[in-house]
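TICKET: design request
STATUS: open
ATTACHED STRUCTURE:
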């Protein structure tokens, strides 16, 4: 794979709180996080909650419990012995990893309630899963604290697009045609048309979920990581992960892949890596293996 310089967004972003907030607010009723998800996040942040406390909360949602245990016992984690309870899963994986899975499972269900005739939802979620897996792997190589949260950032990086497709379908339909399958170009067209883009809307929605500031800032800034307020490294990781996902045969943004620039030297430098350090071929291969296991467990069709 040859690397080309990353495209820069020359169109300025308006203050998303002033411009994109009404768009995010318009669908809050459709994408409100489940109570169990919010309670789990509160407990994980607590200094006093035990694995049993968190497990009891998750157990109040049998469907969530079953899906979490299927994921934990899948080849994605490669555990030597079967995990039968959520509290045991927390002991093995840690509270941060399990809370990331809770958010991921809850988000796929919640954001799946936003209907759109403009997007193939299977392709949308495959792209998110693949991007999330690459982001988590890059986070580990860049020695980011709690890299599992980058899976959530990658998985949900484009959720703002679902809002725009749903709320302004005619305008977005025209922009999609003009972008001709180029994701960065679509974002620039959104900025020129609305004064904000899907990334800004997505960041605001995750903020409404009370997720950590670094996570919603990474989503809001993944197309322009140099403008990230508190999480420039995380935003750059999702930016790079998305570029790599778009070059995969299974995790691309469009059903018909288009040629977009690969991460350039400045992208790798911002991560404290080189393309050799990252070993892109190995990274993409491992993400592909993990993808095959995870995509069906998150109820995303293959």
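STATUS: resolved
RESOLUTION: sequence designed for all positions
ATTACHED SEQUENCE:
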């Amino acid at each position: 794979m040859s690397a080309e310089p990353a495209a820069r967004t020359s169109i300025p972003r308006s203050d998303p709180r002033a411009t994109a907030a009404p768009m995010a607010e318009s669908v809050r009723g459709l994408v409100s996080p489940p109570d169990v998800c919010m309670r789990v996040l509160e407990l994980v942040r607590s200094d006093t909650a035990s694995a049993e406390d968190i497990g009891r909360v998750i157990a109040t949602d049998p469907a969530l419990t079953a899906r979490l245990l299927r994921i934990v016992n899948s080849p994605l984690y490669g555990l030597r012995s079967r995990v039968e309870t959520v509290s045991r899963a927390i002991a093995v994986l840690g509270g941060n990893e399990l809370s990331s899975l809770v958010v991921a499972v809850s988000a796929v269900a919640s954001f799946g309630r936003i209907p759109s005739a403009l997007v193939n939802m299977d392709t949308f979620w495959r792209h998110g899963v693949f991007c999330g897996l690459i982001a988590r792997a890059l986070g580990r190589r860049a020695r980011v604290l709690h890299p599992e949260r980058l899976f959530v950032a990658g998985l949900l990086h484009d959720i703002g697009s679902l809002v725009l497709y749903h709320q302004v379908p005619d305008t977005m339909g025209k922009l999609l045609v003009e972008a001709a399958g180029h994701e960065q170009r679509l974002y620039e067209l959104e900025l020129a048309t609305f004064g904000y883009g899907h990334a800004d809307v997505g960041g605001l929605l995750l903020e409404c979920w009370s997720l950590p500031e670094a996570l919603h800032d990474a989503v809001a800034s993944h197309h322009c990581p140099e403008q990230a307020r508190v999480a420039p490294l995380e935003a750059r990781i999702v930016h790079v992960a998305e570029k790599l996902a778009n070059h995969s045969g299974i995790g691309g943004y469009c059903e018909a892949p288009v040629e977009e620039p690969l991460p350039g030297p400045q992208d790798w430098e911002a991560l404290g890596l080189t393309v050799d350090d990252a070993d892109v071929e190995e990274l993409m291969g491992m993400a592909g293996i993990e993808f095959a296991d995870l995509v069906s467990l998150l109820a995303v069709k293959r």
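CLOSING REMARK: Confidence is low (pLDDT under 50) at residues 1-11. The radius of gyration is 18 Å.
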